Amino acid sequence: MDHWTVSPAGAALLDRPLKVYTTEQVAEILSTTRQYIYELARTDPTFPACRIGRGYRFEEEALRAWLQGPGHRLAGGWKHASRTD
Length: 85
What we know:
The chain is an alpha+beta fold. It has a domain of 51 residues. It has 4 helices and 3 strands, in the order H-E-H-H-E-E-H. The protein has a 3-stranded antiparallel sheet. The longest helix is centred in the middle third of the chain and has 10 residues.
């Protein structure tokens, strides 16, 4: 029977609670669509997504760090509504 061993650094990580979000939860948190979160996960190498099977999971601390990083905005830049003054 094989036994797995965990390094001291890994054991320290396992001792703290790990909060992981689904794609739907991240879309709700960011007030956007699930499709846009999938697009970010596929196309933005800085977006903290972990592919598990056919879906993605997002670790809370990594997502917070990404949100606080520079230059996070909607693809294509900010759009201004046209005025009809």
